[in-house]
Predict the structure.
Amino acid sequence: MNQTHSQTHPQAPAGAANAARERARGGAPDGRTERGRQTREKIADAMLSLLDEGETQFPADRVAERAGVSRRLVFHHFADMAQLADTAIARRLDQLAAQIKPLPTDGPREARVAALTEQRARILEWITPARLTMMRMDHLSERVEEATRQVMDFARQRLTEIFAVELGRLPEDRRADLLNGLDAVTTWGAWYHWRSGGLDPQAARRAMETTVHALLAVTDRPETWPGSGPRAPGPRA
């Protein structure tokens, strides 16, 4: 019987869990340090809650009110609102990494595609407000850029494992082409294209699922891949 999940899975991008381990190695924090950390997280979460509600402006007074703290305390913990936005985005990326669960790497293709697109659609819809905020920011911190790269690299690596059977049927250069296509239609750019074009989340997920199936179909007949046929003879001398 085919198993629905592989026995081993790579770890999701490091985030809050790594930070917690670092704190643990340094010993238990004192009460004041821990309260400060909790307050910073509360303020960052307040900004994220406004962002999730569709807000595009984040005045300090509004964030402070949502967090249940004073405006003065916001600027005690953050140099300015740009630093707060950076911290909030990094926190959201950590939360995203925590939502990435193992997906089946063997069994029927239909089940693998369905599991992939369900997870991607749910996460991409959830991350959209933060992603739009990132696009409006003039500069992203190294922390946010690195976390974003880790998430994207991890997502691409998962595609190579979920569709290893199909990718393995193609020569190396065609395999890279197919992986690039799969990566393009299962990441945020394609999702936002469908959603901003008027599709609701269910329709956008169906579009993703249909496109993934269409791309993978070529592996059933690798000889039909563009450029795979015999080359036409060159001009005679």
